[in-house]
Design goal:
A 6-stranded parallel sheet has the order 4-3-10-9-5-6, with helices on both faces. By secondary structure, it is of the alpha/beta class. The protein has helices at residues 13-25, 37-44, 47-54, 64-69, 79-93, 105-118, 144-157, 170-178, 194-199, 207-211, 215-222, 227-243, and strands at 2-3, 6-7, 30-33, 58-59, 96-101, 123-128, 133-136, 139-142, 161-165, 187-190. The two termini are 13 Å apart. The longest helix has 17 residues, at 227-243. The chain has 12 helices and 10 strands.
């Protein structure tokens, strides 16, 4: 199914995890992205970002609004929950992971600790807060020396799974550009703010609010600075869906 020109896979969580298991057994490199309403609005104004999202091997529906406007044909699978499920799968399959992003040494160390406590047999072969990244126009800009150091570390530690948390647009474009240089990686997933949630830096909305699509209200109350992003993900998305689809 396509919404605002971006492909979303009509798949439930168990089916998505089966695909991940197949990815891990394949000889190919596979990309997983988690489109939400805000990302689709941005992709409507950035053809390269839209092309990047559509190049994925699995696009899960990470947004109540997308499920709602698909007539609930699309099953919502939140990126943070899917990341944790992949970690559980990796533990069972004895696959290794690498954590990249957050921009904070404290957060990246904390999430490694939390995941190790939650999944004691999970092989976390490395983690890094990531390089400084900017989007200029539609192009990704990163300090070459920082990026090369990270690429080298990932090559040396040879993870099967790479989780990238640079924030949407940046992380997807980084994965598309750099995955080819990471031969061990079978699955690379953009996870957005999942590191902040799992590490405890940011609290998630109560489960009942998640179920009825009111997470944005909780985020607005707890993080007023996100007003512009929440406006884009709600009202701007609805406008685009109704008049620009």
């Amino acid at each position: 199914m396509k919404i605002l020109g971006v492909r979303l896979d009509n798949i439930n969580k168990n089916q998505a995890l089966k695909k991940v298991a197949d990815f891990l057994d394949s000889k190919n490199q596979n990309k997983i992205f988690t489109p939400n309403p805000e990302m689709l609005v941005d992709a409507s104004c950035d053809d390269y970002f839209k092309e990047t999202l559509n190049s994925s091997d699995l696009n899960i529906c990470d947004g109540f609004g997308l499920s709602l406007f698909s007539g609930f044909k699309l099953k919502r699978i939140t990126g943070v929950d899917f990341m944790l499920s992949i970690c559980e799968l990796a533990q069972k399959r004895e696959k290794s992971i690498y954590l990249l992003g957050s921009g904070s040494d404290e957060v990246i160390k904390k999430i490694a600790e939390v995941l190790q406590q939650k999944f004691p047999l999970l092989k976390i072969v490395g983690f890094d807060k990531g390089p400084k990244i900017k989007i200029i126009g539609s192009k990704l800009q990163v300090i070459a020396e920082e990026n090369e150091k990270i690429i080298y570390d990932i090559i040396q530690t040879a993870p099967d799974i790479l989780f990238v948390a640079f924030g949407h647009n940046k992380q997807e474009k980084w994965i598309v550009k750099n995955l080819i240089d990471l031969p061990s990686v079978r699955v690379a997933m953009g996870v957005g703010g999942a590191f902040d949630f799992v590490s405890g830096k940011i609290s998630r909305a109560p489960r009942w609010m998640q179920k009825i699509g009111l997470e944005w209200v909780f985020r607005l109350i707890s993080e007023p600075k996100r007003f512009k992003r929440i406006w884009k993900a709600t009202f701007v998305f609805i406008y685009y869906f109704l008049f620009k689809k």
